[in-house]
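Known limitations

Files may contain more than one protein. Parsers should not assume a single record per file. Below, a two-record file is shown to illustrate correct handling: read the sequence, read the token line, then continue until end of file.
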Amino acid sequence: MRNPSVRQIKALHNLSKGMSKRQALFQAGYSVSSSNQAIRVFNKKSMQNLLEKYQGLFEEAGITPEFVVNKFSDWFNSENEEIQLKAYDRYEKIMGIVDKENSKQEGFKRELSITEFVMGNNKDT
């Protein structure tokens, strides 16, 4: 197995920071064209070998999926609200719920107040 390229290592590092695959590639120095083909890039044999290598190293260090889930549970159940909010922000990024850098919502007109949300948007009241 040949050594991973600097861009491959940077891309994996960017993924670990919560970036999407596309963002991770672009920030690592891949072209826009390659970044838009993120699935193809990450499915290449060289990238798969690198991912497997690092997955093995994480597991040897005790960082398993169960460990990560338990850590998130600790953060979500923390008495410190700031820790809870940061944990949720990280969870959103990992799960792809919100892409904060590209969160321009098409068709978004205005925010609803809590009253409007609960009671409905009734213009007669």
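...continuing to the second record:
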Amino acid sequence: MATAEENINRYTNSKIYKLKCDSDYYYIDSTTTNLLYRLNSHKQTAKKDNETRHNKFFNKIGWDKVRIELIELFPCNTIKELQNRKLFYIKNAAKDGHCLNNFHHKYNEGKIYRLECNDGYYYIGSTIRTLKDRLKHHIRSSISGTSRLYIHVNKIGSDKVKIELIENYSCESLKELLEKENEYIIKSKDDPMCLNENRSFTTKKDKQNDIKKYYEEHKNEIKEYHVEYNTANKEHIDAYHTEYRVKYAEKRRNYSKKYNEEHPEKVKIARKIRYEKNKEKELEINKKYAKDNPEKINEYRKKWNEKQKLIRAETRDERKAEKAKKQQKEKHVKDKLLHVNVVEHIKCIKKIVILQVKNMLIL
């Protein structure tokens, strides 16, 4: 049995720590042991206990995504002091939705419900309140609300509406609760009696599709708006673009250079397409520029010729070697053809001689 002195020595190594994952959820606890040892202890406990809120959460996402972080070294004399210090941090995180110590007060009470109207119309929703409180809130909101649900409630009277539980859904976050609600809404999306106007949850892909759909449906209106805006604010837009080009000129040059080096084929094709598309326009621009800037054109040509001379001088020996190699190859081909022709000629002569000898013998 540990003595009082041993207990005091034990709590001089006290620590407040948190188990944290990549999604920013965390669990606050305390220990007198090494943090890595404590993390392994949590993992072993979680294998046996999947009911505790934080164990259930970390088991779900995987302990490989959980790390342990020190909050404070807290040397003390008793376990009560250590527990009080831990509770201090937990209370400070009471309003933080990512703190798993306080998490059970919210979404483990999640519910999916249905508002039933006496004429057959209905609305699907979710809540962490009691159904009675949620119904009262809907009725209060209907006084000033303009949604399809509240317009219908005002039309038939709030006393003709009742609330029914579809499913108790204990979960970890608002996102999970809304996703579950959305499953029921999607099932009823084609039902004319369903008063839900929108989905309760949309993924990033859904949002992108909605934006794309909206653009397709209002393409002409959007274009007209942009034309009107650009015309009305032309000076401001031109000034902004000029300032932007000057400010980020070096950055844009470096980016273009890097892109051209990494994607030479793409750049070549894009330039060719752009040239073919704007061929006449570019030719006119080039002619006008050459006419207005003859000195610059002459200077550019001079520099280009000098550059070509240097290139030719640097590659003279290579070109000579290449030319000699080519001539030697051509000579070899000619010699080979000549040899073949001579051999064929000799064969023909032999055949003629043999025929003549045979004719003489016959005679």
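Parsers that stop after the first record will miss the second one. For reference, the second record is described as follows. The domain at 107-201 is CATH 3.40.1440.10 (GIY-YIG endonuclease).
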